[in-house]
Amino acid sequence: MISSTFHNDAVCCGPRRGARQALSAEIVKIFRPIFVAFLLLVAAIVVADPSNGGGNGKGKGGPNGKEKRSDRSKDGEYTIAVSGYYKGTGTATVSPDNVAITANVQHDGGPVVTLTAASLKVDGPYFIGDGTVEGNKITVKGRLDAARMSRLAATYNSAQVRGRIAGTFPGDTPDDDWKDDKKDKGKDKGKDD
Predict the structure, then answer these.
(1) Chain segment 53-92, per-residue pLDDT in tens
(2) Helix or strand holding residue 37 (H, E)
(3) Contact 31, 69 (CB under 8 A)
(4) What's the confidence (pLDDT) of residue 25?
(5) 23 φ, ψ (degrees, to nearest 5)
(6) Count of CB atoms within 10 A of residue 177's CB?
(7) Which of 5, 7, 59, 100 could bond to 50 as cystine, CB 3.0-4.6 Å?
């Protein structure tokens, strides 16, 4: 029969448990700051890269991080129309990183109230944020693009109300030569110019 004291022999089984724990603690103590510094460096690179959809209005963004706002989509003051639960008109001010909406709206002959959404964050061609109407919080989600001309399309909603917002940039002349590449794909196949 083998005695259990045999396995406590330092020569037989390597360093004692206390020495192994001290060695592990020393390794962790050395490598932890290096690992943290590496993570911070990676985070800084991701935030600094405008092509990763990090909120730059003309950079890439959206749900998949690959969509880019059209170069033809202009910054400035858009004329908007509000429909749905509230109806009315107003303006939207578009910048590379922010959209601000203000409209005078009305519901079923009620008083004219103001719909505002002052800080809608732009991410690629999309924007999102909160606003208020009659003191109630609403969520506004939308898109900036330029098919024939610069335009804004959005929805507003809360638990009680919902509707749409559409706008155009008055200073942008329509591009009559614009073609929807996806819609017109393949129509000219086989034709000579």
Answers:
(1) 444 445 566 666 678 888 888 999 999 999 999 999 999 9
(2) helix 17-48
(3) no
(4) 79
(5) -65, -45
(6) 6
(7) 59
- Domain ranges for the chain, please list them: 7-47, 70-168
Can you tell me which residue has the tokens 């098919």? Answer: 147
- 79, containing H or E segment: strand 76-84
Dump the DSSP string for 91-112. Answer: EEEE-SSEEEEEEEEESTT---
Counting every residue, how long is the chain? 193
* 16-35 per-position pLDDT tens digit: 667 777 777 788 788 777 87
- Please provide the distance, in angstroms rounded to a whole number, between the alpha carbons at the two ends of the chain: 98
CATH of domain 70-168: 2.40.160.90
Residue 146 to residues 50, 74, 110, 153, Cα–Cα distance (Å): 21, 8, 35, 11
The structure's pTM equals 0.62
